[in-house]
Amino acid sequence: MSGPTYPEVGATRTGRLPSGYRHLRYRAALPPGGFEVAGEAVLCWRMHRAMGVRIDASAPRAAPGVTVTAGLGLGRFRLAAPCEVVWTVRDDRRAGFGYGTLPGHPVRGEEAFLVERADDGRVWFTLTAFSRPASLLTRTAGPLLPLFQRGYAWRCASTLRRLVVR
To answer: Which residues of the chain have pLDDT under 70?
Structure first.
């Protein structure tokens, strides 16, 4: 497997998203005191798995260089989405990672999942992404693709909320 399918590796970490892509910035509040649980759920693939996403990762925890294939859909209709983790963060205020698409992914770009603890103690989940179609399927999906991506971001936040209150 070769490297990322786009040149702007790490742009989700800086927040300066490149032109020529669709951008997604989604932010949602999580339950107070949920930073530790939510951060670990993101870094250890638990959030994805709890959403029903099939995860095949080369390591049990996100770290730069770890490859992961997310399986979206069911049975013969499951899409394989290979990615490589390009950055991670884990400190007392932030936990998360960004991964970039590899050959075979239906889009080109990067997506980041970040849990943050604000100065006032509130906990936030942010999904930041930039992407463009890379296959006939995603080019054909046209305007439906951003709707799917926004729905996916909403499900990530909803799943984290559920995991935090357990």
So the answer is: 1, 73-78, 138-139
Question: Is residue 39 a contact partner of residue 95, using CB atoms and an 8 Å limit?
Answer: yes
Neighbours of 103 (CB within 10 A): 12
Distance of CA 24 to the CA centre of its chain: 11
Cα atoms in the Cβ-side hemisphere of radius 13 Å centred on 71: 11
Query: Could you tell me the strand order of the sheet in which 79-90 lies?
Result: 22-30, 123-133, 107-117, 94-101, 79-90, 67-72, 54-57
pLDDT at position 104, please? Answer: 85
Q: 0.90 exceeded by the pTM?
A: yes
H/E run at residue 42: helix 35-43
Q: Are strands 79-90 and 67-72 parallel, antiparallel or unpaired?
A: antiparallel
Helix (H, G, I), strand (E, B) or coil at 84: strand
Q: Is 45 left (phi over 0), alpha (psi -120 to 50) or beta?
A: left
**48 to each of 2, 20, 98, 110, 129, how far by Cα in Å?**
24, 28, 14, 16, 16
76 vs 38, 71, 79, 91, CA distance in Å? 32, 11, 8, 40
